[in-house]
Structure formats: structure tokens, C-alpha cells
Write a structure and sequence with these properties.
The complex is a heterodimer of chains A (145) and B (212).
Chain A: E1 2-7, H1 24-39, E2 44-49, H2 53-62, E3 66-72, E4 90-95, H3 99-108, E5 122-127, E6 134-140
Parallel strand pairs in A: 1-4, 2-3, 2-4
Antiparallel strand pairs in A: 1-5, 5-6
Helix pairs in contact in A: 1-2
Chain B: H1 2-5, H2 9-28, H3 35-52, H4 60-82, H5 84-95, H6 101-106, H7 108-116, H8 124-143, H9 149-176, H10 183-208
Helix pairs in contact in B: 2-3, 2-8, 3-4, 7-8, 8-9, 9-10
The chains are: A alpha/beta (145), B mainly alpha (212).
């Protein structure tokens, strides 16, 4: 499986935290990201996203790259205990720090450690959906889009 | 959802209807995400709701078969309603922003166009497609707080045909499992469906003249 983990783009401050929308800069970052990924021919057969607004908007911006289903996945918005089953060959996950970074670390190094992902950034992994089962192919910070 | 967990058929109907309405709401707001999730929920509720329509058929062997099928469908639905995806849909909907009224209203013309393309519907299949298009237009107008009473009536008229056809399909499924259906019952239902089709076509014709 090819896995693309994307942290939500920059959001506005506000309360409650769950309802914070993306900033205009965040939307811009995502438009550039979609353009770049599209040029690279990246397509996903599934896109899973957290139910929080900034992740919903990030996922919405990425939808032009989805050729299959999108699915809301509450575990992407909370500390995860164990990996839920994953189906699909090219899957994108849109979520939050620190849990998204921990997931990268768990899948790549086999350890649940902090791993930096900037807002609007992407981590590209390939391998099997299990502890230490993946290799890191790319880490793309948002300014590279 | 709470009523569906209690085994209430009407609640399942409302759950499916809510999912459909929310999909129209997403469409009005130009959202693509959550559409697949709501469609999933709508389809999962569909099996129980469809089987529930068989309760109106008075045939002893069929009712026993239906009870077993319904029990299985309820179990499957309850499992799905426990799925994190269902809770995720509810949570996500909590944080969605409202749609912009003016832009949303601008989408109505596209829905009307889709209805117009099917106004000459004759066959049950064509009338079924028309009913779905009318339902989407109705929900959109209701979200926009526009008058939609005529669409409600038309949808009901077309719905009678759909329900009868579904009952015939249920009897067909029962027969395929070895059940026996009296020819007279099938003829009665088929004739009722034929009459409903004629009424539906007439209702569409009458309504078309007022549709702009």
C-alpha cells in the first residue's frame, strides 16, 4: 500500500477548536499541493479524514485527486490505540499532530515517537500497514508545493 | 439512530431520509466529502426499510421468510450503526459551516434541468429515475425554505409505484428461495402496479404544465 499522510493546512484561531476553519493561506497551500500532486500523476483510491472542520476542509480541497471513496475516520482526530483495518492501494490520510506523526513513526520505525509534519505538509510511505512495515519515500513541507 | 437501535422501522425510514437530505445539503454547499459516508449510511438502512414494505403482504409462508430476513437485516444495520464511521459522520456534520444561501439557490436550476430531462418518463424504470430527481429538487427547495408542496405530492404519487414494485421483487426473492406465491396474489400486485404507473404518468403530465 502507498500511504500519503497529510496534516491539515493552516487554520484560523477560534473556539471551539473543532470548528476552526482553514485560513486563506491554508487554502492557498492546498491549491498548490493539489496542482503539484496532479502534475506528478498522484491519485488516491481512498481518502480518510478526521471529522474536525480544518481537516474536513483540507480533505475537500484534496478531493480532485480522489478516484474512489472518501471516508470520515474519527480515529484520525484522537490519540489512536491500535491501527484500524485499512483497505485500498493508494490511500491518503488527513489528520492532526501529534497523532499523525506518531503514526508515521510507528509504521516506519516501529516506535511510537514524535515525528514532525508541518501544516499542509505530506509524508509518503510505502509498504504494509503494520508496525515498522513501511519505508519512508518522501517528506514534503508545505513551502515546497 | 436511537429509534433504529430500538428496532423501529419508521426510524430507519427517517434515518435514510435524513441521509438523503443531508447529501442534498452538501451538494448545495459544494461539498464532496461526507457524501460517500452518507450514501453508505443510506444504503445500510435501505435493506431493513425495503424488507419492512413486505409486511403489508398477507401470505403466511412469506411472512415467516420475511421475519427471518428482517432479523438478519436488523443485526447488520445495528452493527453498521455501531461503526465509528457513523459516529464520525455525526461529528463531522457538527463542525460543517452553513452554506451560502445565494450560491446554493443558484444550484437549483441544475436540479430543475435534471428533472426536465425525464418529464417524458413512461416505463416504471424511467418513472423511478424521475422520482429520484424530483426528490432531490424537493429537498433542495426545502433546505432553501422554498415552496415544494407540489413536489411532495408528486413524489408520493410516484412512490406508490415504487413500493408496489418493491413488494413484487420481495415476492420474487421469496420464490427464488423455494417459497410459493399464489398466482392470484402476484396478479393483484402486478395490476395494482400497472394502475399506479398510469396514475404516476397522469400526475407527471398534470404537474409538468405548472413546472418552470
Amino acid at each position: 500500500v502507498e500511504l500519503y499522510l497529510i496534516r491539515h493546512a493552516e487554520a484560523l484561531d477560534g473556539v471551539p477548536d473543532e470548528a476552526r476553519p482553514l485560513s486563506s493561506e491554508g487554502w492557498k497551500t492546498l491549491r498548490r499541493a493539489v496542482k503539484t500532486l496532479d502534475h506528478l500523476g498522484i491519485r488516491w483510491d481512498r481518502l480518510l479524514h478526521s471529522p474536525l472542520r480544518r481537516a474536513l476542509e483540507t480533505a475537500e480541497a484534496l478531493m480532485p485527486l480522489v478516484r474512489g471513496e472518501s471516508e470520515v475516520a474519527p480515529w484520525l482526530a484522537h490519540p489512536w490505540q491500535e491501527l484500524p483495518p485499512l483497505t485500498g492501494e493508494r490511500v491518503a490520510l488527513v489528520g492532526h499532530q501529534p497523532w499523525l506523526g506518531e503514526l508515521v513513526s510507528w509504521l516506519w520505525r516501529g516506535e511510537r515517537e514524535e515525528f514532525p509534519i508541518r501544516k499542509g505538509g505530506l509524508v509518503w510511505l510505502k509498504g504494509s500497514w503494520q508496525r515498522g512495515g513501511m519505508e519512508l519515500l518522501a517528506l514534503i513541507p508545505p513551502q515546497w508545493w | 439512530v436511537a429509534g433504529s437501535f430500538k428496532g423501529d422501522l419508521e426510524s430507519v425510514h427517517l434515518l435514510r431520509q435524513a441521509a438523503r437530505r443531508l447529501r442534498v445539503w452538501l451538494w448545495l454547499g459544494d461539498w464532496q466529502i461526507l457524501n460517500d459516508d452518507l450514501r453508505w449510511l443510506q444504503h445500510r438502512a435501505g435493506r431493513v426499510r425495503d424488507l419492512g414494505l413486505g409486511k403489508g403482504i398477507r401470505l403466511t409462508g412469506f411472512q415467516k421468510w420475511l421475519t427471518d430476513e428482517l432479523a438478519r437485516a436488523w443485526e447488520a444495520l445495528w452493527t453498521d450503526l455501531e461503526h465509528p464511521r457513523r459516529r464520525g459522520v455525526e461529528e463531522a456534520l457538527t463542525w460543517m459551516p452553513p452554506f451560502a444561501y445565494k450560491e446554493a439557490k443558484g444550484h437549483l436550476e441544475a436540479l430543475k434541468h435534471r428533472v426536465r430531462r425525464h418529464l417524458k418518463a413512461q416505463s416504471p424504470e424511467e418513472l423511478h429515475i424521475l422520482r429520484r430527481r424530483i426528490r432531490r429538487l424537493r429537498y433542495a427547495k426545502e433546505w432553501l425554505q422554498l415552496e415544494a408542496e407540489d413536489l411532495v405530492r408528486l413524489q408520493d404519487e410516484l412512490g406508490q409505484l415504487s413500493d408496489l414494485r418493491l413488494q413484487l421483487r420481495l415476492l420474487g426473492a421469496f420464490e427464488a428461495r423455494g417459497g410459493r406465491v399464489p398466482a392470484r396474489l402476484q396478479s393483484q400486485l402486478a395490476f395494482a402496479a400497472f394502475q399506479a404507473q398510469a396514475r404516476a404518468r397522469q400526475a407527471v403530465r398534470s404537474w409538468t404544465s405548472s413546472f418552470s
